[in-house]
Write a structure and sequence with these properties.
Belongs to the glucose-6-phosphate 1-epimerase family. It catalyses: alpha-D-glucose 6-phosphate = beta-D-glucose 6-phosphate. With 227 residues, this protein is mainly β. It has one domain: Beta-galactosidase, Chain A, domain 5 (Distorted Sandwich), CATH 2.70.98.10. The chain is 2% helix and 48% strand.
């Protein structure tokens, strides 16, 4: 069955795995940066041992430079396995000066929100963006399972590298990562009354700023597996 909520041509960032880059959340540029709102190029596609693989590329252009005046290359490799999806994001500084960024994979999962829970976050430091996203409240997650009885928009700093999602539809999904140091849970509740019951976002993120000098790169991996 389909575990991820698919986007539409009219709203491509409202499903799938939108990229928040080079800014997560609000800031000097548009919400979550520009990478989720532009077309990426396919640089490679193949089938390796039966697993379809595609690599996408995004480079700076006049549009990106109007908001973030740096030269960069982003490479995004996606591998589809029989019961899992693996992604690798590589950010390369192709400029002659250093730059910094934050990022996240804003993954949408199909769900029945009343039955959704996420395990693995107990003990993590939290930044709760409800009610004021620009001034989040600091705290600590005390629950073994995080549920979604209302609006949820919460950052988990130093989150574990593996979380387990029960999507409320009878499926359990393990979300594991390398080098995504943080996590975000989001469901808009009545802010999106027509559809909030049908999805949840469990995001791997890098909330602390990444600094890259010229020719330096940063790599992070994610795996989404049905168990």
């Amino acid at each position: 069955s389909d575990q991820m909520l698919c986007s539409t041509a009219r709203n491509p960032s409202g499903g799938g795995i939108p990229h928040c880059f080079p800014q997560f959340g609000p800031g000097p540029m548009q919400q979550h940066g520009f990478a989720r709102n532009v077309n990426w190029s396919i640089t490679d596609s193949e089938v390796t041992e039966g697993d379809p693989t595609v690599t996408l590329e995004l480079k700076d252009d006049s549009y990106s430079r109007s908001m973030w005046d740096f030269s960069f290359q982003a490479l995004y490799k996606v591998v589809l396995h029989s019961t899992s999806l693996s992604t690798t994001l590589k950010i390369i500084n192709t400029d002659d000066k250093p730059f910094s960024f934050t990022s996240a994979l804003h993954t949408y999962f199909s769900a029945s929100i009343a039955g959704v829970s996420v395990k693995g976050l107990k003990g993590s430091k939290t930044l709760n963006k409800d009610p004021d996203p620009k001034n989040p409240l600091e705290g600590k997650e005390e629950r073994d399972e995080v549920t979604f009885p209302g609006f949820v928009d919460c950052v988990y700093l130093g989150a574990p590298s593996e979380l387990t999602l029960d999507n409320g539809l009878g499926d359990k999904i393990v979300i594991s990562n390398t080098n995504w140091s943080d996590a975000v849970l989001w469901n808009p509740h009545l802010q999106m009354e027509a559809c909030y019951k049908d999805f949840v976002c469990v995001e791997n993120a890098k909330i602390e700023t990444v600094q890259l000098g010229p020719k330096e790169s940063w790599v992070a991996e994610q795996k989404i597996e049905l168990i």
